[in-house]
Amino acid sequence: MGWMRGLWERVREMLQRERFEDELDEEIAFHLEREAERLMAAGLDPDFARAEARRRFGDVSRVREDARDVSGVPWLECALRDARLAVRVLRRSPGFAASAILTLGLGIGATSAIFSVVDSVLLEPLPYPDPDRLVRIVQQNSPENRWNISVADFLALEERQEVFESVAAYQVAGAALSGAGPPEQITVGRVTADWFRVLGVEPAEGRTFLEGEDRGGASPVVVLGSALRDRLLGPGADALGTRVLLDGVPHTVVGVLEPGRATLAGVAAEAWPVLRLETPPRRGPFTLRGLARLRVDRTLEDARTELDEISRAIFPLWVDTGFRDEQARMTPYRLEALVLGDVRADLWLIFGAVAGVLLIAVSNVGNLFLVRAAAREREMALRASLGATRVRLAAQLVVESLVVAGAGGLAGLLLAWTGLEALLRADLAIPRVEEIGLDGSVLVVVGAITLGSAVLFGLAPLVRSFSAGTGRTALRTDSLARDAQGWSRLRAGLVSAEFAVAFILTTGAGLLVASFVRLQSVDPGYDAADAVAVQLSLPAARYPAYEDVQLFWQDALRGISETPGVEASGLGAALPPAGSGSAGTNNFDLLDRPIGDGESEPASLWNLASPGFFAALRVPLLRGRIFDERDREGGEPVVVVSESWARRYYPDREVLGARLYAGGDRSVAMTVVGIVGDVKYLGLDGIDDAAVYEPHWQGPLRTAHVVVRGRDADALVERTRRQIGTLDPELPLTNIETMLERTADSLSRPRQWTILLSLFAGAGLLLACVGVYGVLSYYVRIQRKEIGIRVSLGAAPSTVRRLVIGRGMTLAAIGVAVGVGASIYVARWLRALVFGVSPTDPLALALVGAGLMAVAFVACALPAITASRIDPALTLKGD
Amino acid sequence: MSILRSELLRGTLDLMVLKTLTRGPEHGWAIGQAIRSGSGGVFEVNQGSLYPALQRMKRRGWLTAEWRLTEGNRRARFYTLTAAGRRQLDQEERAWGMTSAALDRLLRTT
Q: Of B49, B60, B77, which has the smallest distance from its Cβ to A27's Cβ?
């Protein structure tokens, strides 16, 4: 193609510029020689001939220029020349260059990193086909009281539903893996046959489950995650057909998933064994979670209606077996909402903070360029009067701005990349973390904004000349001092805006810090020192019957309590201060105050514990007694309640002796025999401390936390391990930690978020100070003459200092005032994130305001001192 | 005969250069001379505009250039017509023929 070859020639000419011009010179020289010879042959004398030859040729330099103009890639060479010039110019003002590049880098980098997270986690749809048709199915009798579905529920759902394309049930559990390699405890997701079909996930190798493989009688099969297969059999090894033992049960591997599919529907599991369903004898227990895909032509509302009907239809079928909660309904929720949980607010908050920093960064850079612009107006005017076209000047300025912006952009890229790595490594409990990566489109957008504004501000010097017409006024020496009102007002406005944003950021960070401090001093309700906890899970294969489970716990507890060094020991289903997910809840009906028709039963946290649990955690008994072995033999079942529970349900009457039905089961009533102190089961910032404790032998308890109190943590763990080992050598101990570690871990997430937001607030404040410093320095410089005059008329240095500082502090004060208003407006979003403090606390706002003013004062100090040192003799002599 | 130092249409300069080179490779000065003598002195090429034009045509692929020694043992850049250049020449000759015939007809009939 002709034009391509032409372009190639041009590029070659550009790259070999020097050789090109030398050759042209030689060619022209030759031509002139020959022409001169011809003229001499015609009779002219040599000197005259040479002159005439030259004359006839035309303007040699013009020819050279013309040749140069049509060769190479002119605009590119021009731009490169400008760029080289720009670098030289910038090297002469290192302060400006460094500030601009660092500021831009910070703004671009931070915003890109955080926005990548927000984009991947909040904005990108879940990585399944048609993810908004995926729903979770939970059971509830009111929106606050949700629990799982049961096998009976699921079978009924499968049989009767028409609104879903496919339905599946799942359980997240730990399982002991053996058979291929050393035994270990892994997390598995037990799923029914249609699980993968609901999600739309295809295996990388083999197949998923077939219909009927999730019924009793079918031989157990499993789909492995890619990482587990690599670990057990070697990377990429053929696993299909091999057998692995999960909790002692052999499973045949029928498929392997892709490496990127370790987490499905928010469940991170290493293997997916099939969940085999048997016809249930009762409605409960409620151990399954439901997941389904809506039909294309049905909505969530349709699903809600149908599930409601199904729930009501199946209730009478099971009413004889003890399930009495008539209000219980299966309910659909969008999967996305449940996966993201409460991290949405946190992420948008951080994003807001980062956007604030970006705003400050851009306006700082703008200010820097504007200041520089004023200084260069004369230069531009001079060049214009010498014949440079406006386009040419504009082009040069744009290239200069682009050089700065380009360097800033590169710095931003580096910061974004390292920042994202650090973010992912920090313990921020962000869901979908496996999907986070530096998004190219994000970088492009953010980069374009910042670069665009840099370029815009870079053209400032020309704007005035465009509007003023001739540049002659700019050439006058005192033009700098008469700096247009418009520009300096704009710069002042930018600085005030920076302080306003910095105020909001600092307030937010301060609130988080205050919340965190408060959180740390919350009384958890137990004594975390000198106690260790381990988790044990009894597999159904080896402990099939209820009695086997009870016998094991009985022997284990006795053995541990008799071990030397153990002051107290016990077990519980829920262990504080776990997050909201792991503690179970149950609904109940008080006998002396039953609920009316159409009302929902109240619910509270429901823990199963051994009598020693309270002593092991040092939870105080306030009144009455703890249940003990005597309650085991016959008689009525008993419970113990927490202080908050007693206060809420029996505020003015005696709670001891009160009786209640639990879980809708009206066949047996339980009696309250004791009140214990409140324990923070839902995190240290939990507000609801009502809890009911049932003795562990009253319910099937396969997974429990064993708590042992004593001095030497390592020794205790070792002895516990040995004790358990004598009873069952194949039972692994998991989640081994001291209660101190466990308590500290629960604070880890709020700590990290606080640090992160404080970092941004600090950055924003720093940038704002840089901004006010820059503006004041410049102001002092251009007002030198005026200040010199004042000093020579008798003004004291302190007066001058006051003048400068006053100017700077006014800007800061305006910013703070605006910031206060904005903070109050933003407070409503902050409310959900702070603990124990009010976002509009006047004292807090006043403190932040004072802090910012103090910081601004420091930033004003240096220019003020410089101003006070101005020697009138020097400044008045002239410019 | 007056020497026309008019601004030659760029196209006609190309045509003349290409035509000249059908006789064999030449250097810039010789091309200029050939055009002057070949046109009977009517066309005096603006010598300065010759070299940019040669460069342009070279970039288009109609000519190639290489440095050689003349008979006088001096170094000069010689331009050679390429196949593409020949095709371009044919095209331009035809175009010129049509233009001049049309102009001719116009001038004769009025």
A: B77
